[in-house]
Design goal:
By secondary structure, the chain is of the alpha/beta class. The chain has 10 helices and 14 strands. The radius of gyration is 25 Å and the shape is elongated.
Length: 331
Amino acid sequence: MGHPDLNIELSPRHLQLRDMLFRRWKTNGVRIGDKIESQNEIVKFCEFSLITVIKTLKDLEAEGVIRRQVGKGSFLVKAPWTEAHHRIGFFYNRDVVGGGIFNNDFYTKLVVAFEKGVVSDGHEFIMGSFTHKSMPIHLWDALDVVVLTGITRQTETEKLSETSSQIAIMDLVMEGLPYHAYRINFEPAFQAMFRKNETTRGKYLYLNSAIPSSEQAARLAAFKRACAACSTPQELRVISVNQESGDADKLESVLESYKPDVVGGYVHHSWLPMITATGAKVYPYGLDGTRASFTVNSSEWMQHVLSDIYANLEERRPEAKILSFPATFRP
């Protein structure tokens, strides 16, 4: 198929139809051997004349893309859009990561590990951004896979169905979206931390993200479960923070009044000196952590993610599937 031109209207009519048919078949998950629409059916759902449709189908037959059998219909013989070399995009939400993805340590390590995995596997890596209301659909159409991160309840997700690219969601689970979602399961790490400290009663401060998402809610619920499971009752306080802006006014006040023994959760890197100065242990979320944290090996996680992405490319048909990767506790 090549890569769709952003101004396909300038192409000859039969090439425009060819591009539209490839996009339709790719989106619908048409596979080799499947029956495709008849020329009369194609005329009904597009604005091309019967003459253009007939010429396009004849060209595709001559190229060996389709096989036409009298009395039986036309069948897909070759899928030009499924190549051994894939174009894989990683796009983040600029409304969430306002300072840019490389101003966030977690996302920086995530992108580097993802790009390294894609390129090492012989594929092409593309990175970009979107917002809650604006998505580069035409750019995504030129890619085989688009991995998105930073989607929240404010994101207009109905626009995702407009692209022919395979969509995958990173670090988020949203009900009703027919895509594969890749998330980190922090509950084993929380359990390990509380087991280490459960013999004595302690004061825990959990920093919950002020940016609402399914992952934010799931992590908070898991932290509470791990705390409640301790053999010795623990004291837990939860406050909301904006780990993207780094505003620490509320945190500073709570640290002074509550005097926690342990602080964990969504910790901005600039808060670490202030927290450790109180004598509290601090366990932020992180990737490839070399210090105390709830951490994940980014290379291993991305291998897990990419193996599923490649397998899903063979299927093409959208479906909802959640793949979790366990985090570890680094004391």
